[in-house]
Amino acid sequence: MKLYSLSVLYKGDPKVHLLKAAYDVSSFSFFQRSSVQEFMTFTSQLIVERSDLGSRASVKEQEYLCHVYVRNDGLAGVVIADNEYPPRVCFTLLDKVLDEFSRQVNRIDWPSGSPSTINYTALDSYLSKYQNPRDADAMTKVQAELDETKIILARKQNSCCEIM
């Protein structure tokens, strides 16, 4: 399970533009990294452009899943992850990031903002924290522990049946 990109965009009237983004392209070769990053930026903008205000969606693009959330105020977030990453965790992350972004960055700056002018530094830390959904998300952690408990109980039950 891997997250590759976390982006915050603004869907304005004329077009969609990137406000801030964080990327993890370390799994790609050095010579591919810039083109992969450009692909992720372009795909994020295209998906937000084609999404309605107030909508959430998951879109498959090649071997990636792009999860998008466009709020009614035009602020949008996109997470690009592999196919194994849980979508619920992605949308939880997008909710958290967009809420925090809207509190820290003035709404007046959204239509004219760019990655160099927007002062918001939390995306990189969120991207690294959420690489393992089990550690980052309490519900995923509980589900994993429950699955482990089921396996242990099944083993105990089988061993008890063998004894009898």
Task: Describe the 3D structure.
By secondary structure, this protein is α+β, with helices and mostly antiparallel strands. Helix content is 45%, strand content 24%. It has a 5-stranded antiparallel sheet with strand order 2-1-5-4-3, sandwiched between helices. The termini are far apart. The mean pLDDT is 86.
What is the structure about, briefly put?
This protein is of the alpha+beta class and 164 residues long. The chain has helices at 33-50, 87-104, 122-129, 133-136, 138-163, and strands at residues 3-11, 16-23, 55-61, 64-70, 75-82.
Labels describing this entry:
alpha+beta; about 160 residues; about 25% strand; 5-stranded antiparallel sheet; 5 helices
Mean pLDDT score: 86
Strand content: 15-25%
Structure annotation, total helices? 5
Please summarize the sheet with the most strands: 5 strands, antiparallel
Roughly how much helix do the residues carry, as a percent range?
A: 40-55%
The main sheet orders its strands as: 2-1-5-4-3
Which structural class matches the secondary elements?
Answer: alpha+beta
Question: In one word, what is the shape?
Answer: elongated
Give the termini distance in whole angstroms: 42 Å
Question: What Rg is obtained from the alpha carbons, in whole angstroms?
Answer: 19 Å
- How many distinct beta strands? 5
Order of helices and strands: EEHEEEHHHH
Spans of at least 5 consecutive residues whose pLDDT stays below 50 are none
